[in-house]
Specification:
The chain has ten helices and no strands. By secondary structure, the protein is mainly alpha-helical. α9 crosses α10.
Length: about 240
């Protein structure tokens, strides 16, 4: 594929890559559906650790079925994430020069690793965030939580961490193409901290300060690591 593709050819390529990404997610979701009970137990573990004998409930006959469908899609997205990334990179690769293309495979590996790291941290943080939120109303409010609401909350919570952990690679990419310099980013650390905290507060599902701290701290460390990686990895 060359850089002289017509608009129609670009659209056909986009359609092909999108279909492959969707197929990967569907196949991965089917695999996740087979292990739906294991995923359910995994996600409800933090609730059971914090809430003790308080059971999750469902309030509509169709709720349990829809919950397991969402769990399957959640698992499918995590499993298929590297494949989806590959399709995205494969689509934009023709627009890159030879120097930029050498970052594709390392970029996919790093993005996948960061995503899984973020998901893992999100899962670990979920129990801590729940403990903070439930203890906050202890003695005044008795937590009776629907299973669908909790699992949707848990999935959003974990995915937010996974997606947020992608920003170092995009930051590195901006420096690699010359859109922003490392020196400028290094001199604007206070603004970086403000941006990380502000965006973290906006995307954190629970909205509590403890979870915000758990998300913002590693993101700032990743910011510093990205600057360090750019210092040695982007030498002319």
């Amino acid at each position: 594929m060359t850089g002289s593709m017509s608009l129609v050819e670009h659209l056909e390529e986009l359609r092909s890559r999108a279909i492959k990404a969707v197929v990967a997610i569907v196949v991965a979701s089917i695999i996740a559906f087979i292990f739906r009970n294991w995923i359910f137990d995994l996600l409800t573990g933090p609730w059971e650790d914090v809430a003790g004998d308080r059971e999750l409930a469902f309030f509509r006959p169709t709720e349990a079925f829809s919950v397991f469908m969402k769990l399957s899609l959640f698992g499918g997205l995590i499993i298929a994430f590297p494949i989806v990334l590959w399709q995205v990179w494969a689509f934009i690769a023709p627009a890159l020069n030879k120097r930029e293309r050498r970052y594709i495979i390392p970029g996919i590996l790093v993005l996948s690793g960061l995503f899984l790291s973020g998901v893992s941290l999100g899962y670990w943080s979920l129990g801590r965030g729940l403990e903070f939120l439930i203890d906050f109303g202890e003695g005044r409010l008795d937590p009776t939580v629907g299973g669908a609401f909790y699992l949707s909350f848990a999935m959003r919570f974990i995915l937010v961490f996974g997606i947020a952990f992608q920003f170092p690679v995009f930051l590195f990419s901006l420096m690699a193409v010359g859109a922003v310099s490392r020196q400028r980013l290094a001199s604007g650390r206070r603004w970086a901290v403000l941006a990380i905290v502000t965006i973290g507060a906006a995307i954190t599902p629970s909205g509590d300060p403890y979870t915000l701290l758990l998300l913002s701290t590693p993101l700032y460390l990743l910011y510093e690591f990205t600057l360090l990686a750019a210092r040695f990895g982007l030498k002319k």
